[in-house]
């Protein structure tokens, strides 16, 4: 299983919106509505932000939203805040109890 | 409060072995399937293994199949990952995490334990 493809970095000013893409194949992202997104601050464990493509765990601000079209999933952060600066990883179910993560995207708040 | 605490990492020579542990508290381990995820230094996340709540179902990533073995002791609220035939590219931080569903494979995570494979 090859890693899902994400842009290396995206940036935006406070209050702006940024979107991170996550491109897989018809064997993972394109076949299942089981995409999740994780936020990771330096030296910390990953923190789930989105699951099942569009759902937010309790406590995650509604500024974070997820979507999917074909083989590409996306995470949008609206109203960017300083604390959103972190690495973000997508993850897709890839069949029979296997998963594949994305390459990771660094979000910079200018 | 849900807590997962990994331990057992360290420096090991290529070809060596280590046994990682994940001690959980704040929830009943027997009701959760679990996963292991690795992160090489400065790199992304890699899913390694899945184990169902009863250990009846176990899966591994191709990169570790035949070398790593996941197990659990629900009575002791502990999850384990036996690492054998270690290679330099196995170096990284190893995380355990609770599994909720196919679209939510990592819910609560531990802080990770660092494994360094080097001579």
Describe the structure in your own words.
Chain A has about 110 residues and is mainly β. Chain A is globular. Chain A contains no helices and 9 strands. Chain B has no helices and 10 strands. In chain B, the strands form 2 sheets. In chain B, strands 2-10-9-4-5-6 form a 6-stranded mixed β-sheet, with no helix packed on it. In chain B, strands 1-3-8-7 form a 4-stranded antiparallel β-sheet, with no helix packed on it. In chain B, β5 and β6 form a beta hairpin. Chain B is globular and about 40 Å long. In chain B, about 40% of the residues are buried.
Task: Present the secondary structure layout.
The complex is a heterodimer of chains A (110) and B (119).
Chain A: E1 9-12, E2 18-23, E3 35-40, E4 47-50, E5 64-69, E6 72-77, E7 86-93, E8 99-101, E9 105-109
Parallel strand pairs in A: 1-9
Antiparallel strand pairs in A: 2-6, 3-4, 3-7, 5-6, 7-8, 7-9
Chain B: E1 3-7, E2 10-12, E3 18-25, E4 33-39, E5 45-51, E6 58-60, E7 68-73, E8 78-83, E9 92-99, E10 113-117
């Amino acid at each position: 299983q090859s890693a899902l493809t994400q842009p290396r970095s995206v940036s935006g000013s406070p209050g702006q919106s940024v979107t991170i893409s996550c491109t897989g194949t018809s064997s993972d992202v394109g076949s299942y509505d089981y995409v999740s997104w994780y936020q990771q601050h330096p030296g910390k464990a990953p923190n789930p932000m989105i699951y099942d493509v569009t759902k937010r765990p309790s406590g995650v601000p509604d500024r974070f939203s997820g979507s999917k079209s074909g083989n590409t999933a996306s995470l949008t952060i609206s109203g960017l805040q300083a604390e959103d600066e972190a690495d973000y990883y997508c993850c897709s179910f890839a069949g029979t109890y296997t998963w594949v993560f994305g390459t990771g995207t660094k979000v910079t708040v200018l | 409060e849900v807590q997962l605490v990994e331990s057992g990492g360290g420096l090991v020579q290529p070809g060596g072995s280590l046994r990682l542990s994940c001690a959980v508290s704040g929830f009943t381990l027997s009701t959760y399937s679990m996963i292991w995820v690795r992160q090489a230094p400065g790199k992304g996340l890699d899913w390694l293994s899945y184990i169902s709540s009863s250990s009846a179902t176990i899966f591994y990533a191709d990169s570790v199949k035949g070398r790593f073995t996941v197990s659990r002791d629900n009575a002791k609220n502990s999850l384990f990952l036996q690492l054998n035939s270690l290679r330099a590219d196995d170096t990284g931080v190893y995380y355990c995490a609770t599994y909720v569903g196919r679209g939510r494979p990592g819910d609560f995570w531990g802080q990770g334990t660092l494994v360094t494979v080097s001579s």
